[in-house]
């Protein structure tokens, strides 16, 4: 089994790269999806978040109000750290379960947004970074996600800067151009990962 860490800043296109890698045969362990799962209604994770941040982070149906929570934590590093202290251990445990279910010949890609920020690079055989200039990411967040520019800048500022992210990369996928440019780059990285697995 080859364990790959995949990361990129918000707006870099990590979800699309994960999707393409899955189509090529990778087993994807998606930290964002798992982070949603561990704070779903009825979970201990959600109860811990509400205990920390109060009932105002809940929607009427009892599920987590992610935009409300985001406004709190992305404006205050201490509150973000408190949230991470709740969610990250739960995500790590679930990720380990999913990886354990993969086969010995599988290429397991851990899709981890905060890989560089949390010093997680040593946990993986290789790290792949999706690289996009900050101004392009900002424009995508505003145009494609409808995020207010101030919120987009706040979320970007809460993550590692571009040089820090690139410093942990074994392989880099440039996703600064149109989507049509991405597939051949992902396929090239896939070939290199398979070659490494065969060594």
Characterise this structure:
It is built from nine helices and five strands. Helix 1 crosses helix 9 (182-198), helix 3 (44-53) runs antiparallel to helix 5 (77-100) and helix 6 (134-145) packs across helix 7 (149-157). The radius of gyration is 17 Å and the shape is globular. The protein has a five-stranded parallel sheet with strand order 2-3-1-4-5, sandwiched between helices. With 199 residues, the protein is of the alpha/beta class.
Quickly list its features.
single chain, 199 residues, alpha/beta, five-stranded parallel β-sheet, 9 helices, 52% helix, 13% strand
Number of distinct beta strands = 5
**How large is the radius of gyration?**
17 Å
Would you tell me the structural class of the helices and strands? Answer: alpha/beta
Into which percent range does the helicity of residues fall? 40-55%
Uncertain residue segments: none
User: What letter string, H or E per element, gives the SSE order?
Assistant: EHEHHHHEEHHHEH
Instruction: Tell me the overall shape.
Output: globular
Strand order of the largest sheet: 2-3-1-4-5
**Biggest beta-sheet profile:** 5 strands, parallel
Task: Give the overall pLDDT as a whole number.
Answer: 93
What is the CA–CA distance across the termini?
Answer: 12 Å
Which band does the percent of strand residues land in? Answer: 5-15%
Number of helices: 9
